[in-house]
Amino acid sequence: MLLIKDSMTREVVVLSPQATAGEALALCREKRIRHLPVVEDDRLVGIVSDRDLRSATPALGDPDRAEALGRILVPEVMARDVSTALPDDPVEVAANVMREKKIGCLPVVEDDRLVGIITSSDVMGALVQLMGAHEPGSRLVVSMPDRPGTLAGAAGIFGELGINLVSTVSGPRQEPPPGEQGPWRAAIFRIDTINPTEAIEILERAGYAVLWPPGP
Amino acid sequence: MSGRAAVVHDLALEAYGFGGDHPFNPLRIRMTLELCEALGLLEDHTFVVSERATVEDLTTVHSLTYVRLVQKAGGGVGDPWDLAHYGLGTGDNPIFPAMHEACARVVGEVLEACRMVMRGDVTHAMCVSGGLHHAMRSRASGFCVYNDAGVAIARLKEEHPGIRVAYVDTDAHHGDGVQWIFYDDPDVLTVSMHESGRYLFPGTGGVEERGRDGGTGYSVNVPLEPFTDDESFISCFEAVVPEVLRSFEPDLILSQNGCDAHALDPLSHLSATTRLYEHIPHRVHHLAHELCEGRWVATGGGGYDIWRVVPRAWTALWAALSHQVLPEKVPEDWLALRSAQSPVELPRFMRDDPAVYLPTEHAAQIASRNCRTTEQVLEKVLPLIR
Lengths: 216, 386
Description:
Largest sheet of chain A: 4 strands, antiparallel
Strand order of the largest sheet of chain B: 2-1-3-8-7-4-5-6
Number of helices of chain B: 12
CATH superfamily of the largest domain in chain A: CBS-domain
Strand content of chain B: 5-15%
Helix content of chain B: 25-40%
Number of domains of chain B: 1
Low-confidence stretches of chain A: none
CATH architecture of chain B: 3-Layer(aba) Sandwich
Oligomer: heterodimer
Number of strands of chain B: 8
CATH class of chain B: Alpha Beta
Structural class of chain A: alpha+beta
Strand order of the largest sheet of chain A: 6-7-5-8
CATH topology of chain B: Arginase, Chain A
Shape of chain B: globular
Helix content of chain A: 25-40%
Order of helices and strands of chain A: HHEEHHHHEEHEHEEHE
Strand content of chain A: 25-35%
Largest sheet of chain B: 8 strands, parallel
Structural class of chain B: alpha/beta
Number of domains of chain A: 2
Number of strands of chain A: 8
Largest interface: A-B, 21 and 23 residues
Order of helices and strands of chain B: EHEHHHHEHEHEEHEHEHHH
Low-confidence stretches of chain B: none
C-alpha cells in the first residue's frame, strides 16, 4: 500500500535522443504533460521539461524560433543527472526527494529500465487515498497523551459504537493541552458516520481532547 | 403568485426512522404537521397518499442486489459483514423491521409529488419525509437508504423525455448521493449549499466537483465555512442560485430543505436561524414561477433539533409553498401538546429573535471567505451551464 508503483503512471511518454526541441514541445502540448524522459535502448539517459525547452529556444514571435525548434536536439537541453525512484519505495520517499530537490516528477527505474513516472499530482492522489477523502466520512481531530494504548483506546471507542474507521493518521508530537503533562500527539480519524456527537462525548469523558469538531 | 399546493403525507411514512434515540426521528415529521395544523395552515388541504415505490422504480438508480439486500435485512435476514459492506446495520443506518417497505414508501411519496406537479394537478407539492440525499447506488449512507430525489428524477426523465430538473439542496451536509447519480447528466442540475466538507460528513462538495463529461457544469457546489450565519448564507444563495437556475431553465424545481444549518443543530457547525428557513422557500417559490410555471416540489432532509428547529422551519416551508402568511406565535395548543415531552424549552415564537443570535467575532472573515467561494462558482461553473 502507498508504494510508488501503486501511484505512478505506467504508460510513459518518452523521447529519443534524436528528437528536436520542436517535437518535444509539441508532445508536451498534445499530451498535456510537463516532463519527458529521454530513453535510448530502453535506458534512461536524461529528462527534459517544457520549461527547459522554452528557455533554450527563442520566444514566441521571434523570427528565428522555427529554425531553432527544428535544429536544437533534445540532448542539448536535457538534464543528464536525473533523480529517479524505485517502484517498491514508499510514496513518501518520492515526496521527500521532490520536495528537497524542488522538482515536479521522478522517473521510476527498475534494473536500469524505465518502468514509470511519478509526479507531484500522483503524490497528492496518494494523500487523498490515505486520508480517505474519497469516501463519505466525518473528520475528527483528537489529541492524546503520547504513550502506548492511547490510539488503540480511541479506535476502540469508535468500534464500540459500531462506527467504521475510513482512515487514521497520527501526527508528530506536540505540547500537551493546558494542565496536562508530557508530550501529546494528535490523530486524525475519518469515521463513517454523519453523527459523531456520541463518540466525541465518550472520548472527552475518557480524557481525550477533541480539537475538531467543536462541542455544542 | 398563485397555484394549488398539496402535502403528500401518510402516517405510514412515519415508519421511516431508526428507533430508540437515533437522531433521525420520525417524530419530527409528526410535530411539523401538528404545528401546521394548530396554526390553521392545513385547512382546505388534505393529505395526498401514494403507493410505495416499486422495485422497478428503485432500480432506476439503485442496484438490484442492494434493493434485495435491504428487503432481506428488513426481514431479519443477512450476514452482518455483508450488510455492513452496503452501509447497513451500522451506527448511522441500523436495520429495522420492514425497512424496505418504509423506505420505498418515502420514495413513492416524493415520486407522486413530482408526478402531481407534472400532471398539473397542483402547482407545488411538499413531502417532508423525503430528502434522503446521501443514499448511493449500492450503499446506505448518513441515515439514507433509498434516494427519493434520485428515483423521482430518473422516473420523470423516462416519463417526460427531454425534461430538465433543477435540484436545489440547502441541507447542512453535501447532497452527495443525488450529485453522483446525475454527475454526467446535463438535464439534471444539482445545486448544493452546505458546510464545507473539510471536516463535516460526507467530506465532498468542493467547488471543483462540477460534473463530468456531458454533465460538466451541471453539478454546482457552494461549500460554506463553519459558523456561517444567515446573512452570509443568504447572500451566497442570492449570488448563486437564481443565476444558475436562470441559465439552466428548468421544467421543474425539486428542493431539499434540510434545516440542520440552524445554530441549534447538534450535527453541523453552521449558525443559521429561522430567517434562512423563511427566505429560501420564498425565493425558490419565486424562481419556480419565473422559470417553470411554478412547478416546484419540496422535500425535507436533515434537521436534528427536532423540538426547537424542525417543526418551525418546515412549517415556514409549507406556509411559503401554500401561499399563506406565517403566524408570529407558536400556538398554545401545540405547546401544551408537546411541552411535557420536550427535553428543552420550546420556543414561543415562529421566528428566532435576532438579538439571541448575535454575529460571532469571526463573522466578517467567514463572510468574506464564503464570498470568494461564490465568486469561484460564478467564474468557473456558471459559464458551463447552457
